[in-house]
Amino acid sequence: MSAAMDTESTYSGYSHYSGHSKKAHRQGRDRHKSPRSKDGSRSEKSVTIQTPPAEPLLGNDASRTEEGQDDNWGETTTAITGTSEHSISQEDIARISKDLEDSVGLDCKRYLGLTVAAVLGLLVFLTPIAFILLPQILWRDDLEPCGTVCEGLFISVAFKLLILLIGTWALFFRQPKADLPRVFVFRAILLVLIFLFVFSYWLFYGVRILDSKDTNYQGIVQYAVSLVDALLFIHYLAIVLLELRQLQPMFTVKVVRSTDGESRYYSLGHLSIQRAALVVLENYYRDFTVYNPALLTASKSRAAKHMAGLKVYNVDGPGNNPSGQSRAMIAAAARRRDSSHNELYYEEADHERRVKKRRARLVVAVEEAFTHIKRLQAEEQQKAPGEMMDPREAAQAIFPSMARALQKYLRTTRQQQYHSMESILQHLSFCITNNMTPKAFLERYLNPGPTLQYDRDRWFSKQWTLVSEEAVTSGLQDGIVFVLKCLDFSLVVNVKKIPFIKLSEEFIDPKSHKFVLRLQSETSV
Hints:
- It comes from Onychorhynchus coronatus.
- InterPro entries: VANGL.
- This protein has about 525 residues and is mainly alpha-helical.
- Among the domains are: about 100-245, no CATH class; about 250-290 and about 460-495; about 295-300 and about 330-445, no CATH class.
- It is built from 14 helices and 5 strands.
- Strand 1 (about 250-255) and strand 2 form a beta hairpin.
- Helix 10 packs antiparallel against helix 11 and helix 10 (about 320-380) packs antiparallel against helix 13 (about 440-445).
């Protein structure tokens, strides 16, 4: 236990040093660029920004200072502390208030739709019962006696209403998975159809039965049975429109992440654009690897370093021949680009070498740690039950032997922002509980997994924006392109229709499979 506490303090100490070193780096950079930031702040007041700035989705910018750090940066870094000042502008206040208003509007729209559907469903189920009970309440003495057939219709109405209730609960009463920008067209059409249908039945009932006080009670019950039968057919229509229509694949969509170009293909049926976007997002969290902005900073810093080394001198004086300066800049950049592929090659080779070395050290450390915990289990079986270790204590006991190797590997592969010490301990105790091998424990860290594998607070984007030239309630068509945007990246979706395939049949006679062996006199056969 003491070893686990020491390791925890050491692990948190690395994060402490990292935060202070990044703060010192940013303070020095802000001192050198203070005049430029003032001018930039004056110019931003006259610019309309469509997308407001926000914090990164992952909430970690540790990779920005990763390039200039050595392997022992935690022991050799000087920590500089200071006072942090935070300010908020008028634009930020307006943006926060707008987000609150939008969230309130979405909640009101959601609850309004649920309320309307619930009231209409209650009206549908109470209407047949009311048709049967109102004559018994209003003119009971004038009704004709209900015979055996009429009493059998009571049983039919009861069971049909029960079946309709179960089917309605299974089809409509589900937890919503998302808030769509527009209403679901088919569901709205069904609600309007049910309302008109029930209203017409009530209108006929009021004019022909209530006003005239019809005494044929068996006919009234049959009228209620016909209403329940029609409602069952409408429920069948709802199943066809809402569930069965979209099952047959008709379109193939290609989803590309704008930052790193990772892509996937999916097959969709007849869906609207907004529902297709919802299906794409559900598959994105499952199939795409987690978005890591730290992997994109290396190429950006390399390009900035190459452009920063270019200098253009004008011998004719300032303000003369600007087009010549641009051509000289382009020519110098082209010459430098011809030699930059060598730098890229050696950088990638060196990075792969360091990753392989860190990976080998991590695998050896984890295997030794798991061997130790197996030995502990064999020894603990001989002790008293009160001295047995639970999986959490066992994980804390073996974690110090692998903590440094794991931390270095995660830092080298730029995954440190996704794995906290608590999440690693939980995963380790889970593996120990289920008697999993070291390879099963390392699978989460050696290969970047899907987005759902990581902590919800680190990857989940609460709001996506659907950008489409077509109406989002219109159906998918060949060639449609729409974009799903979040704070850090966007998903570009290209829709292609599955082509019509024509198959022909060709019959082969089984007697045609006969062959002749031709022998020559020179052969040995």
